[in-house]
Specification:
The protein is of the alpha+beta class. It contains 19 helices and 19 strands. Among the domains are: 124 residues, Dipeptide-binding Protein, domain 1 (Alpha-Beta Complex), CATH 3.90.76.10; 216 residues, Dipeptide-binding Protein, domain 3 (Roll). Helices cover 32% and strands 22% of the residues. The chain is globular.
Length: 529
């Protein structure tokens, strides 16, 4: 199987041959200057930061791009400098002026300019891909974004907004991957049919991060090469993400030394590796929320709030968390993850088949009832889906599990071509509004939120959510988000089940690997072997 395209020549002939031979021949020893990561990359849709919204792509962006500011690696609630060395809020409370860092350059060698900042935000809003709603929170639209970002001089750029939010919230938004700064000069020659270079950036990079994309073969491998122009040069020459769909194969690769890191292993694989010589299992608290998404527009039954209520009593929460996943996740039944201000920690629902049956009967919902259940063809999603299938069946609801490649499952979910699906949500920035905007905003299906995917139009809840983000008092704001969570928890087409705890398997040769609470906080730049 060919893992590298012709562009792998960018790595240098000797390195490319070493990497290819190591991966394909399974010599049980990875190259000293390369990090080999075994995981599934089937979810990857686009490596354009204006579009990429999947786990694989989001985990790559901190390594490929920089933003004006960034979340601190150790404490994501703290914001620190990146491409901007300083910033100042305007007296109007609706503007920020950034000072660009001296001598910041892209991987192409081009200097980072105010024009690149303007281009990056403008294209992200005008492309209007899945993560665009994050920048829309500032009131930015395709019609006004060009007026909202202004070059002050060669080293300063000013951002203004119309939304009724303050600078603190705006700064949080600007730490999201969609706020990554793209090299306008490098992308300009790749624009086709007014796409702002989107087609090219799906499989290439134009950033100032520690690495750049050397080659990408969908469903096979992503090869990152050290960016020689990076301000903080990485310790390794290459990072290679191998697509290994089978979790057993991932375990074997890291156990035998053919991979340095393995992600997404099941509980059985993790248990088998604990205590193994040369292996470390890293347990990282995660802000990931796993939930059941019901398409309320698919049919009358799925759109009935009684079905949503019954579903809450047909999940074996403790069985999934304790017996099935064994430490990889914990029961959590609210849309804000623990660690975020205002997160609910009570879990009011438990498996109660008789209560679910009564709710269905009282609402006149006839059983048996069959529903299509699309699921990522990967762990732990398949195991969770099988648990749900078993418990729902006890109430006469047959969940027809249909596994699929993650990118296809994403596409179906975003287009509304599903009945039920098991999804996860990861905050885009460290503020409670990141999740509230996804699950509690959908006035008229005009923005790409999880509520829209569920077909759940909620103008009143939308108003409450927008009021919460405007509140400046931290205590009052946290209370508003708690109220929002309670409403969504009580009745919505979302059944929140778990909060993740990522378990990453490392070879003992790997040093200085860092992964934070949020999904984009995966860092390869300081890794050594």
């Amino acid at each position: 199987m060919k893992l590298f395209s012709a562009r792998a020549g960018l790595l240098g002939a000797a390195t490319a041959l070493t990497l290819a031979f190591s991966i394909q021949a399974s010599l049980a020893e990875t190259p000293a200057n390369a990090l080999i990561v075994a995981q599934s990359i089937d979810d990857a849709v686009s490596f354009d930061p204006a579009e990429g919204f999947e786990l694989t792509t989001v985990q790559s962006f901190n390594n490929l791009y920089q933003r004006l500011i960034e979340s601190n690696r150790d404490d994501g609630t703290k914001i620190q400098s990146a491409l901007a060395s300083a910033w100042e809020a305007g007296a109007d409370g609706k503007s920020l002026t950034f000072t660009l860092a001296d001598k910041a350059v892209f991987s192409s060698g081009n200097p980072v300019r105010p024009e690149d900042v303007i281009f990056s935000f403008s294209r992200a809003v005008k492309l209007n891909k899945s993560p665009a709603f994050i920048l829309n929170e500032l009131g930015w639209t395709a019609d006004n974004v060009d007026k909202a970002i202004e070059k002050v001089d060669a080293n300063h750029v000013k951002l203004t907004w119309t939304a009724d939010v303050g600078p603190v919230f705006a700064l949080a938004l600007l730490t999201a991957p969609i706020a990554s700064i793209v090299d306008e000069q490098a992308v300009a020659g790749q624009v086709k049919d007014g796409d702002f270079g989107n087609a090219w950036l799906k499989t290439n990079s134009a950033g100032s991060g520690a690495f750049k994309i050397a080659s990408y073969t969908p469903h096979e491998a992503l090869v990152l090469e050290a960016n020689g122009n990076a301000s903080d040069k990485p310790k390794l020459e290459n990072v290679i993400l191998r697509n290994v769909p089978d979790v057993g194969a991932r375990r074997l690769l890291v156990e035998q030394g053919d991979a340095d890191i393995a992600r997404g292993l099941g509980a059985d694989q993790i248990e088998a590796l604990k205590g193994k010589a040369g292996i470390t299992v890293l347990s990282v608290p995660s802000a990931r929320s796993d939930y059941l998404l019901i398409n309320s527009k698919a049919n009358a039954t799925l759109g009935n709030p009684a079905f949503w209520e019954a579903a809450r009593y047909l999940v074996d929460y403790d069985g999934i968390a304790k017996d099935l996943l064994r430490g990889q996740s914990e029961v959590h039944q609210a849309f804000l993850p623990v660690g975020f201000p205002g997160a609910l920690t009570d879990n009011p629902f438990k498996l109660d088949v008789e209560k679910a049956k009564k709710v269905l009967a009282d609402a006149g919902i006839q059983t048996p009832f069959k529903a299509e259940f699309i699921v990522f063809n990967d762990q732990p999603f398949l195991s969770i889906a099988q648990s749900l299938q078993a418990s729902f069946a006890k109430a006469g609801i047959e969940l027809d599990i249909q596994p699929g490649v993650a990118s296809d499952i994403y596409a179906r979910g975003r287009s509304g071509k599903f009945e039920l699906t098991l999804r996860y949500w990861i905050p885009d920035y460290f503020d409670p509004h990141s999740n509230a905007s996804a699950f509690a905003i959908n006035r008229d299906n005009s923005t790409n939120t999880a509520a829209k995917y569920a077909g759940w139009v909620i103008p009143e809840l939308t108003d409450k959510t927008l009021a919460a983000v405007k509140e400046q008092d931290p205590g009052k704001r946290a209370a508003l988000y708690q109220d929002l969570q309670k409403e969504v928890q009580k009745s919505s087409p979302f059944v929140f089940i778990l909060q993740g705890n990522d378990q990453v398997v490392l070879s003992d040769k790997v040093k200085n690997y860092v992964q934070g609470l949020n999904a984009d906080q995966v860092y390869y730049d300081h890794v050594e072997k």
